[in-house]
User: Fold Peroxidase from Daucus carota subsp. sativus.
Amino acid sequence: MGSGKYSAAAIAATSFFFVFLFCMPCNAQLSTSFYDQTCPDLQSTVKTQVRTSISAERRMAGSLIRLHFHDCFVQGCDASILLDDSPTIQSEKSAPPNKNSVRGYDVIDRAKTAVEKICPGIVSCADILSIAARDATVLAGGPSWTVKLGRRDSTTTNFAQASNGLPFFRDNLQKLIDDFANKGFTIREMVALSGAHSFGQAQCFTFRDRIYNNASDIDAGFASTRRRGCPSSGGDSKLAPLDLVTSTSFDNNYYKNIMQKKGLLETDQILLSGGSTDDIVRDYSKNPATFKSDFAAAMAKMSDLSPLTGQSGVIRRICSSLA
Assistant:
C-alpha cells in the first residue's frame, strides 16, 4: 500500500488533472457527436415532429427556417426567441419583426416535449431548433447539412436587438450587405441565405408599396396579380407566396423570379439592381445545384453564430420558460 504519502509530482499531476476537468467546459465547442451517448435518438425524434408538422401544413417548412434565422441573428443561436414574457423577460416574440409574423414555436415545443421523454434535461431548445431548421429544408426538397450540437439556452433576451438588428423588408442593398457582414457573412452567403424565400409567405403590408408604386423594377403582370390579394389600404395581414411558382418547395425559382422582376419584397428584387449581387443571382438562377450547396454551407455557418456552450447558458426543460 506504500507509505500513505503522495509525492510532490503526484500532487501536482492530480491538481493539474482537476484543473483540466474544471476548465474543459470553458472551452467547449459544438460537436457532431455531442449527444451520441446521452441522447442517441435525438435527431430521429426531432425529425418525426418536424415531418408531422409539415405534413399538416406545408408552409411550416419556411416558417421553421425563418424562426431559426430570427433567433441566430439576435445574440446568437441560443433559443432566446422562444422565451415568453415574464416579470424578468421582455420577449423577442413581441418585437416588431417577430410579432404576428414569426411562426413555428409550437413545433419546437412539441419536439422538445418528445425529446424530454427520452432524454430528460439533456438537450437544449437551441439545438432542437437548429436540427428542426435543417430537417424542414430537407423535407421541402432542399439540401441537408451537418448540424453541430452542444448549444445551451439563453436565460436572457434582447428585445432591442430583435427590434432593430434584423434585416428589414425596405433595406437597400448596402444595408443588407452590411447587416450580414456584421455577422460574418460574405455577399455570396447573404444572397444564398436570401434563397430561403424560395418558400413561405409574406404579409400584404411588407410588399404593398412595391406593387402599387409602378416602379420599373417590377413586372406589370406580377404586380397586377399581387394587387388582387393585397388592397392599397387595409388587409395588412393578407398573405402572398414569396415564390409564385413553387411556394412550398425548396428550389431556385426564387432567383428565376428575380430575373423576371417578380421578386415579392423590395429586398428580394434589390439583389438584381446593378450592384455586386447581380452575378450571384444570375448564377443561382441557372445552377440549382450550386445554390443548394451554397445555401447548406451558409445555413451551417449561421447555426454556429455565437452559441452558448459549456458552463454558459442552461438547458431549458420548457422552451418558452426559465421555470
Notes: Strands lie at 201-203, 239-241. The chain has two domains: 41-166, 173-301. DSSP finds 14 helices and two strands in the chain. The CA atoms of residues 65 and 133 lie 5 Å apart.
